[in-house]
Design brief:
Order of helices and strands: EHEEEEHEEE
Number of strands: 8
Radius of gyration: 16 Å
Structural class: alpha/beta
Strand content: 25-35%
Helix content: 10-25%
Number of domains: 2
CATH architecture of the largest domain: 2-Layer Sandwich
Amino acid sequence: MTAPTPYLHLPGTAREALSFYGEVFGGRVAAHSFAEFGRQDGPADAVAHGYLVDGPVALFAADVAGDEPPLRCAGLMFSLLGAADPATLRGWFTDLAAGGRVVEDLQQRPWGASDGQVVDRFGVHWLIGFE
């Protein structure tokens, strides 16, 4: 069984977001336009389906079509607890915070683990940490 993979529906910023996440996490970006999929419910060059390839983090994204609501994170965090070595996780935290907002600094907790929270510039709330 595979883990759930986030699929973000964004307000016309899917290509920019995927490029950003590709830079943060590594790997390549694959994106298919509405025109490529024969869709006419949005701009021809909008992303109908995009994803990260060959990187350590799996993520899908698309631009919303018609009157679909875009992503709004409330009561949800994407957890990257222990998803990589501490140095990599620190780098991801810093990179995700660029243009976003640090909710809680990455810090050591009384129980010995380290974690922090950031909302990136696309509104995605991340929990990053390590033992």
